[in-house]
Structures are given as C-alpha cells and as structure tokens.
Amino acid sequence: MKKVLLTGASGRIGSRLGEQLLNDGFHVVGLDLAPARTRHPNYAHVQSQIRRKDELVKSFEGADFVLHLGSMMSWNPKDNAAMFEANVNATQLILEAASAVGVKRFVFASSGEVYPEVKAKTLPVTEDHSLNPTSFYGLTKKIGEELVQFYQTQGLETVILRFPHTQAASEILDPESFFSGPRFFLDSKIRQMEQFGNTQVAEYLKSLRGDGSPKMILQCGEDQKPYMMHIADIRDILSGVALAMQHPNAANEIFNLEPDDVVRFEEALPKMAEIAGLPLVKAYMPGPAVHYRTSNAKIKSALGYQPSHTFSAMIEENRKNSEQTAL
Ligand SMILES: NC(=O)c1ccc[n+]([C@@H]2O[C@H](COP(=O)([O-])OP(=O)(O)OC[C@H]3O[C@@H](n4cnc5c(N)ncnc54)[C@H](O)[C@@H]3O)[C@@H](O)[C@H]2O)c1
Question: Residue 292 catalytic?
C-alpha cells in the first residue's frame, strides 16, 4: 500500500483530500497543528506545528508522496510573522524531511496570489506571468515556490499547483464561511473590514445596511465594474491534486489549477440572493474591480485535467437543497 504524507490534513481541502486518498487505497499520514478530522484504519494523524525536522522525519519514513497543503491564510498584517513561520519556515522543514527520506514526488499547494491575478499585466494569466505578489500571504507562497524549486535542483521531484479560490458548494451561501462570508454577505464583509482596521470601508458598508436586516452584496470596483474571478469547486481541486501526484507529465512542473468557468458576480449574485431569500445591494469597493481570468490550458493539455463542477452548478446544488428543506 502506497503511503502519502498530507500536511494541512485537518483543513478544508486537506480533510477532503485525505478521504479521497483513503478511498483510493492509500495509507495516509496527516500532519496538522489541529486535531484529526479523519477516522480510518489506514489513517494516522500527527498533531504538530512543524518546528523541527528530526520530529518530522519519523512520520515521513516510507512515504511515497508528500502533499504539502498545510498553510496559514490571512490578509491581516498582524498575522505576517506567524504566516512566515507557517508558510515559509515550515515549508523548508517539510522539504528537508521529504528529501531526507527520498519521496517519489512532492506536491506544493501554491496560490494565484503569487502573480497576483488581481493585478495581472496580461489576461488570461498563464504560468509564465511574472510574480509580483501584493499580499504578504502571496509573498509567502512565492518564497515557498522558490524553496520547492531549490530542493528540486537537489534531486527532489516536485509539482507546484497554483490553486484558485476554492469552495465547497455547501459554503457559498454560508455567511460564516471563511471566504464566502465576506465575499457575498454584507455583515461578514463589515466584520472583515473592521478586523483589517479598514474603518472607512467598514463605515461605507454600514451605510448599506438600511433597515439592518441581513443582506448580500454584489461587489464592484470604484470603476463600477462588477467583480469577475474564478471560484473552483473543492471536488475539482482534489482531482487536480491526484493528477499532480501521479501523472508522469507533472514531474517538476508548475500548473494553474483553474476551473473552466469564470464567476461573473452580476450573474451569480442575484441567483444566490434569491436562494438565500435575502436582498442584494451593490457595494463599490476602493480601487479597480477584481476582474481576471486565469488559464488552465497547460494542465489540461499536459495532464488531461478536466474540471467538472461549475460555479453555476454549485449554486443549483444549493437551490435543490433549499427546495428539499422547504418540503
Ligand atoms: N482555499 C482556497 O481558496 C485556497 C486558494 C489558494 C491556495 N490555497 C492553499 O491550499 C491549501 C489548503 O487550503 P485550505 O482552504 O484547506 O486551508 P485551511 O486553512 O482550511 O487548511 C490549512 C491547514 O493547515 C494547518 N496548518 C497551518 N499552519 C500549520 C503549521 N505550522 N503546522 C501544521 N499545520 C498547519 C491548519 O491547521 C489547517 O488545518 C493551503 O496551502 C492554501 O494556502 C487555498
């Protein structure tokens, strides 16, 4: 039985990836600072903050593959030091341990924020676009990629996957969910702006509250353009990671792991608000609109990747669920 060392195994994507690997017959060792979310005879969990290589090597022994998804995601400047520790220092230790035990392949979960897509020079964004991250999170992922590429030159076979924004269908209408909350719901967006210390934007958003009842937001730039971006379904990310782990053509490559479809907020939000039964208001955010497309041509032609869940299908899944609940 092949062994996979999976970091970030208790995370949103990692926990689902672990389940998929177990279903596919792998032995999985999950590494995460959080407790295990998976119970299975072929699953072992190591709860660790990834601070020492000698502690790691024991868990890595016999591993065929390392999937490094463990990471801290924050856009709050207060978290920068902790994020450097989790995304850069820990990545270096994971790479050391993977090299020390001689794994067959190391897959790194990077992000479209390395470009960054929101300030792309050319669209659609391809893998050879220059890397000039504007967020500290994007910077930690860029340094992570550089570390991965260095260890590749030392003989470690690696794959870098630049993930898009990723959601489970069940998250997109959940105002408390980490990404969809502030992306689509007014009160969650206000809370996020307050946490970032962005009081001016928080005050503007509060002015949209009207009668104070919960609302959804259609985010636009100050140029009035509604947002447009990719939002992948976690199920497609899992199939992309599986290809990156085993496909011979993936060795030592970098891929955008994008969906085919792009989410046009002016089309998606009215449908989402209808299902949620909430009013929708336009929110004009500072700066130009988030408005990009990223190419998945490389991973499709090299690995035969074919995403099969569109954002519209995720919305329709929610519609069906809400209709069933209403019955
Ligand atoms: N979800 C997205 O939209 C998205 C987009 C681009 C890239 N990514 C990348 O994909 C990966 C998985 O994302 P996710 O949405 O599942 O994130 P998540 O936050 O749900 O999971 C990350 C996991 O890593 C663990 N972790 C953090 N620091 C650690 C440390 N020092 N030691 C051990 N464990 C640690 C956390 O406890 C958490 O369980 C991450 O690398 C993320 O940067 C995600």
Answer: no
